[in-house]
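Our platform keeps sequence and structure together, in a single record for each protein. This encoding replaces a full spatial description with a residue-level series of whole-number codes. We quote a single record here, exactly as it is kept in our systems:
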Amino acid sequence: MSPKQKNALVPAGKKNPPAVRKPSAPTTVRLVDETVTFASREDVRERLPDILGKALAMIWIDKEFAKVFATDPQGTLEAQGIFLPDYMAIEFQKPDTNRPRIVVYEKRPNSNFRLRILYLQLVMMAGR
């Protein structure tokens, strides 16, 4: 192959480099388009995993979002317009590892007992 011949599927010349995010650019990604208020455990189990999946993806690629989410996961979701029932709580575990986990608990009234409703965790798998 001659040095002048290019084999890129999508050529990117020096004048038009591939898209990159500038570190100073603010995060504009929204987890939801409108306000979401969960009313029941079933509702949380059905709809929240999709939203938390987006949050985990953002945590993976956006360190600023990861810091904010690790500090106050429930407050971060509420700032995005996502509201859980009062008897539920979100915990962000392992924020400094490559396998962060988000756990949703149901709190029992007049008890320190918490029932895990669901959890999401990033897992990378390679195949051959």
